[in-house]
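Q: Could you write out the predicted structure for this multi-component system? I'm mainly interested in how the pieces pack against one another.
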Amino acid sequence: MAATETRLLLLGTVMLFEPVNGYQLRRELLSWQVEDWAHVNPGSIYSGLSTLARQGNLERHDLVDGSREVAVYTSTASGRREFERLWRAAVESVDLLSPLPFHTALALMPLMARADVVQGLRSRLARIDVRIREQLAQESQLETVPPHVRAMADLWMGLGSTEREWLVDLLGRVAAGAFELRGEPMTWQPPAQDPGWQMAGERQRYAELIARHR
Amino acid sequence: MAATETRLLLLGTVMLFEPVNGYQLRRELLSWQVEDWAHVNPGSIYSGLSTLARQGNLERHDLVDGSREVAVYTSTASGRREFERLWRAAVESVDLLSPLPFHTALALMPLMARADVVQGLRSRLARIDVRIREQLAQESQLETVPPHVRAMADLWMGLGSTEREWLVDLLGRVAAGAFELRGEPMTWQPPAQDPGWQMAGERQRYAELIARHR
DNA sequence: AGCCAAGTGTTCAACATTGAACACCAAGTC
DNA sequence: GACTTGGTGTTCAATGTTGAACACTTGGCT
């Protein structure tokens, strides 16, 4: 959680599925194959959720569901503001060797409004251009560096340009209305075997228990 | 240190400069601009060094240099074996979203013999090809996934091909004898303002103190 | 000589991460 | 009805990370 990407991911995933418990989140994240890239193991989900709750970004409800106690989380108004802040920061973070925050933000793009996404991506593009220019400027003093470091710089340049090209295309499509973002009608539906789909019943029950408890 | 890249980096940097103290390492890593990519802050250098010493991969010498106590580290035989293991693992780790281990291994390439570097890079290439094939195979079932996730997959594909192309080139050059690797005559010299150069005197003194103490 | 600023070298308490292990339930199976 | 198997939901002690702060030295300035 030192890195903000776990905060962002948990906060966003709770917003997608709330009210939701830790195990449901874990199942959903596994099904996205997020375990592959973000490094979420059971422990960090639970400790991350409780940290976010302590900070007032999530609210924890200790419900009794049948004979069983469950810790169910919902987002708070300040948590949703925090999500926007984190999302913006992540989408603008240009670091070739830590691409996780950016990819996490991309995965959670549908939680942001179109104008914010366009603005965030534009800002990222500007930063990438700065990076590329800096890199080109340093090209001249490459004799001061061992040859294998120069090979690394070449790779960075290549990866940078690849991302830039892709980003220009994405930006164009988002600006032209592609994808379904926050506040827009949702037509895309997950396949039936998606656990996020299957847990709809439990989440409904949680919502009722929370409402009754107020 | 959960991630192995800090272990690899510290072990390798000690091998480059031993005998060396924590502050000298920090200075050197800063001058490489390693702070930018690996996330080494003062604390993790010292705790990493002491962990490596506890495990028998480094030896710690508490020297008295002038009026001052200094903790100076040297590598052990088992530490050098551990370095080779970690290096191989890092160079073969294909994970688009955690490229740090690979780039750390690249930076430390001169500590490995040419045959090992060639073998490691070949093995990486094979793994990248597997990844790319898997990705292409999943292309068919892309309707089961929200559209923005497909855009992410496109980026991954692009980054993967960019790295592959670069890797083929690098492999060719290493196989053809480019770069100066372990056990080969060193002709390249760091510029005079490099701290690694400047600390030569202190390291000489440390070496004598250690020798006397045996 | 006294004082400040910058450099050197390290520690440590607060905090986060890890993943194995726990406790429980439901649904078989013999 | 005892007994395993697999899923659900969570905790916790061990370990690692963080970066501010400490303690000391050196060199310059008045």
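A: Regarding packing and overall arrangement: Chain A has two domains: 1-110+188-214, 113-181.
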